[in-house]
Design goal:
- There is one protein chain.
- The chain is of the alpha/beta class.
- The protein has a single domain, classed as Flavodoxin domain (Rossmann fold), CATH 3.40.50.
- The strands form 2 sheets. Strands 2-1-3-6-7 form a 5-stranded parallel beta sheet, sandwiched between helices. A two-stranded antiparallel sheet has the order 4-5.
- Helix 1 links the parallel strand 1 and strand 2.
- Helix 1 packs parallel to helix 6.
- The chain is globular.
- It holds the Pfam family Flavodoxin_2.
- InterPro entries: Flavodoxin_fold, Flavoprotein-like_sf, FMN-dep_NADH:Q_OxRdtase_AzoR1, NADH:quinone_OxRdtase_FMN_depd.
C-alpha cells in the first residue's frame, strides 16, 4: 500500500493543517506497518502555474527549453498520484479557497485520459480507487448554516475536484476558528487531532 502525503501551507512549523495532516499519516502508518509513505511539500518544491506554453505542450507542441524541467516535474507529480492508494492533503484556507501552490498541483493531476475522460455519457472519473483524506484549517467558521458558508470555497472546491476524477467520498478533518482567539484555536486543533487519531485506518 502506498500513501502520498501533500502539504501546502506556507507557515511551516506554525501550520495547523500540517500538524493535522501529519497526525493523519501517523495514524495510518501505525495501523499499517507495511505502508509506504512519500511526501511532497508544495511550498518547498513549488510547481509553476499553468501557462499557454504548458497547454500547447499538452497538445503536442515541442516544449520551450525553459519549460521542459517543469513539465517533467508535473509528470512526476501525476505519476506519484496515480501510484498512490491513499492521499493525505494538508489544505489551509487562504482568502476563502485553497493555496495557489495546491491549485498548481491539482492542475497537474487533472489530466484527460489519466484521471478522467470524456465519453458519450459525459465525464468519467478514472481515479475512484483511491482514498483521499484532507486536513483543512480555516480562520473563521464556514460550516453549513453559518453566515459565512457562502464564502467557503476550500472544502466545497476539493469535494468537487476529487468527485470529478471519481473519488466520490473524500474525507475531511477540519480545524475551524483558529484565528478567532487562542481558546478557539486550542479547541479546534485538539478536536482535529482527536479526529485524526480516531480515523478509520482500514
Amino acid at each position: 500500500m502506498k500513501l502520498l502525503h501533500i502539504d501546502s501551507s506556507v507557515l511551516g512549523p506554525h501550520s495547523v493543517s500540517r500538524q493535522v495532516s501529519a497526525a493523519i499519516v501517523e495514524r495510518l502508518r501505525n495501523s499499517n506497518p507495511g505502508l509506504e509513505v512519500s511526501y511532497r511539500d508544495l511550498t518547498l518544491t513549488p510547481l509553476a502555474h499553468l501557462s499557454g506554453s504548458h497547454l500547447a505542450a499538452g497538445q503536442g507542441a515541442t516544449p520551450e527549453a525553459g519549460l521542459q524541467a517543469d513539465i517533467a516535474a508535473g509528470q512526476i507529480v501525476l505519476e506519484e498520484f496515480l501510484a498512490s492508494d491513499t492521499v493525505v492533503i494538508g489544505a489551509p484556507m487562504y482568502n476563502f479557497t485553497i493555496p495557489s501552490q495546491l491549485k498548481a498541483w491539482i492542475d497537474r493531476i487533472l489530466v484527460a485520459g489519466k484521471t478522467f475522460k470524456y465519453g458519450a455519457q459525459g465525464v468519467e472519473g478514472l481515479a475512484g480507487n483511491k482514498r483521499v483524506i484532507v486536513a483543512i484549517s480555516r480562520g473563521g467558521f464556514y460550516g453549513p448554516g453559518t453566515p459565512a458558508a457562502v464564502g467557503e470555497h476550500l472544502e466545497t472546491y476539493l469535494r468537487w475536484v476529487f468527485g470529478f476524477i471519481g473519488i466520490k467520498n473524500p474525507e475531511f478533518i477540519s480545524a475551524d476558528g483558529i484565528q478567532v482567539g487562542p481558546e478557539h484555536r486550542e479547541k479546534a486543533v485538539a478536536g482535529a487531532l482527536k479526529a485524526a487519531g480516531d480515523l478509520n485506518a482500514a
